[in-house]
Amino acid sequence: MKKNTLDNLFKQSKESFNTEEPHPGHEMRFLEKLKQQNNETGQNSFNWKPFLLVAASLIIAFAVFTNTASNEIQELANVSPELETTENYFAATIQSEMMKLQSQRSTENEKIINDALDQLRLLEIEYESLKQDLKNSGEDQRVIYAMITNYKQRIEILEQVLERIENIKQLKQV
Fold first, then answer.
1. Within 10 Å of residue 7's Cβ, how many Cβ atoms?
2. CA–CA distance, 131 with 74 (Å, rounded to integer)
3. DSSP string computed for the chain
4. 86-129 pLDDT, tens per residue?
């Protein structure tokens, strides 16, 4: 019953509420803005949800695959803490020597450096094979020794190339 009285009250005093008139063209401008807004949301209302679900599925599958693949290859670090320390030492030394080598790069020694990098790539390929052998052999000491020797060979190559470059520099200064 109260609703009817409120409705009646508003209907009866409707004229007293409308004291101002909107500016001319207000309704047209409002309808234009509304139309533009509907067009913009219509263009941007592309449903991304299925694509996001597929992308998330692919990311999860990739993560599972890489974790599985990384578990298949044995690293020296997984054999013992001492070998982990050894592997970290050799890796850091190689990285340091590589940075020195790259800083010495010039047109004069480009061929020497590229040859050394080719030799290093071959040793890295051999090392990847040794990691698989380590897994298959059940941590055979001969494979571990071969992996350490591989690291040493890479360091020796880098040191020899740096020494050659230094000798070339000294000869040019004389």
1. 10
2. 5
3. -HHHHHHHHHHHTHHHH----PPTTHHHHHHHHHHHHHHHHHHH----HHHHHHHHHHHHHHHHHHHHHHHHS--GGGT-HHHHHHHHHHHHHHHHHHHHHHHT--SSSHHHHHHHHHHHHHHHHHHHHHHHHHHHHTS-HHHHHHHHHHHHHHHHHHHHHHHHHHHHHHHHH-
4. 888 988 999 988 888 888 888 888 899 889 999 999 999 999 99
Backbone angles phi, psi at 13, to 5 degrees: -105, 25
Task: Give the Cα separation of 33 and 77 in Å (integer).
Answer: 66
Spatial separation of the C-alpha atoms in residues 30 and 33, rounded to whole Å: 5
**CA 158 – CA 131 distance, rounded (Å):** 22
pLDDT at 136: 86
**Tokens at 39, concatenated:** 């067009």
**What integer is the mean pLDDT of 124-143?**
88
CA 55 and chain centroid, separation: 16
Q: How many CB atoms lie within 10 A of CB 90?
A: 18
Tokens at 170, concatenated = 């000294």
